[in-house]
Amino acid sequence: MKMPMVNKCTAVECSYNRDQTCHALAITIGDPAHAQCDTFCRAPMSGGDPKAVGQVGACKMSDCRYNVDLECQAPGITVGREQDIVDCLTYQPV
What is the dihedral of CA 54, 81, 39, 50, to 10 degrees? Predict the structure, then answer.
């Protein structure tokens, strides 16, 4: 099983974000009620590997059409703001 890439992240205030690209090696999506990016982090320094592009390591949104055994099967995802929360914008409930 291959982890899907974070194709784009518009949460530019995240420490893992450089030029709308996620550089966390793997992110986690979701809590029981919302498809938020659990890896989102505001810190005074940059994080992640500048040579890597983030991938989805785990998804806790069991009601998403791309979720199989809490693993994302989407070809890639987009992360961005949905109201006041940084969410997986690819999330689609079944």
Answer: 40
Statement: residue 71 has pLDDT above 90? yes
Tally the C-alpha atoms within 13 A of residue 79's C-alpha that lie toward its C-beta: 33
| Region label for 74, one of left (φ > 0), alpha (ψ between -120 and 50) or beta (otherwise) | beta
Reported pTM: 0.91
CB 21 within 8 A of CB 48: no
Q: Residue 69 in contact with residue 1, Cβ under 8 Å? A: no
Domains of the chain, residue spans: 5-88
Instruction: Give the whole-angstrom CA distance, residue 60 versus residue 86.
Output: 15
Q: Is the dihedral of CA 36, 49, 3, 55 positive or negative?
A: positive
